[in-house]
Amino acid sequence: MSALESRELQRLRYWQGQTIRSQDFRDQVRIERQLRAWHNRALHNVYGVAKKLLDGLRVEPTVNGVVVHSGLAYDLFGRELLLGSQVSILFGDQREPMFLVLRSKESCGCDQASTTAANCLGTKQSLIATNNDLIWLPVKGFSFGDGVPIARTLLTGNVVSIDADFISPSVRPLARPKIGVGATIPGATTWEIWDLKLFDNQARLSIQVKIDTSSAGFATVPQYFAALQGPLSQVDQNALSVICLHFDHIDQLRPDSFVFRFLILLIKFTPGRLEVQKYLQQQKAYVSWIGIERIPGST
User: Fold this and answer.
1) DSSP type of residue 104
2) Is the pLDDT of residue 1 over 50?
3) Residue 281 to residues 42, 196, 208, 243: CA-CA distances in angstroms?
4) Distances in whole angstroms, Cα of residue 174 to Cα of each of 148, 177, 220
């Protein structure tokens, strides 16, 4: 299997009767893990602790060390750092402020199929995800590529304690709203007459069209904005004088559609509804729209 930052990714193919080795299964897991890491890094730009998952990698001090509770974090490369159960870590011989860092074992060259934390930590007090590592690193010289810091120590004389003011970096949920845009086809929009009022030789019509927004893939009803497009103030050869009053609004909001309505005033009106729709088609009138779906819980 290629190194993590290699751009050429292997793909395993199987055939009937093939002898499968344990290395093949490990390579398959590596491929899937690398694809997830690239997705997390490129699309979500994640780094830090997922505070709301499991116990959020909560750190509690003990007499000679700390207890780290279960949780999930993502390193600078988008790799998942999962701690499935709590782990006890001793302070050791610390002579300067240290970070307690959760990192991938690929970063320290000890990516072995171990079921305990003993390989990198020197302790067997609890199980830890086989591809992760908890380690003390000096604050001086630390870089984000070393892993995710979840605690920091303070030195008071020869006494080591946990810095209560330290805040570990946290993964922020996706805050960008989902935005969809579209428009009906100029000259081929399916206009309908919703309401008609007659005044002598004039007519006031409410025109509507149902807009299909299913292509945007909204999960909830978004905030829709729509506008009528096209020159609707010309006089045609049949002496049909059209004044577009607009007063447009939208109604019947759904995740996959809404109805757009507006007003038109006809002067020298000759009864007949089809000529209005024909006129709108001739003018290539259409509706452009935008929908904005906010992330649940955002303000």
Assistant:
1) E
2) no
3) 45, 19, 14, 16
4) 20, 8, 16
One-letter amino acid at 252 equals: Q
The one-letter amino acid code at 219 reads A
pTM of the model: 0.53
Average pLDDT rounded to a whole number, residues 15-37? 86
What is the rounded distance in angstroms from the CA atom of residue 103 to the CA atom of residue 159? 26
| Both tokens assigned to 248 | 């447009």
- Per-residue pLDDT reduced to its tens digit, 102-140: 998 876 555 444 433 334 444 444 444 567 889 999 999
DSSP annotation of 235 reads B
Token output for 229 = 């497009």
**Residue 46 in contact with residue 40, Cβ under 8 Å?**
yes
274-280 contacts at long range (C-beta below 8 A, 24 or more positions apart): 275/238, 275/240, 276/191, 276/193, 276/205, 276/207, 277/191, 277/192, 277/193, 279/236, 279/240, 279/242, 280/189, 280/191, 280/207, 280/230, 280/232
Compute the residue count for the chain.
299
Phi, psi angles (nearest 5°) of residue 60: -120, 135
* DSSP secondary structure, 44-79, as one string: I---EE-TTSTTTT-EEE-SSEEEEPPEEEE-TT--
Separation of alpha carbons 84 and 78, rounded Å:
18
Cβ–Cβ under 8 Å, residues 79 and 104: yes
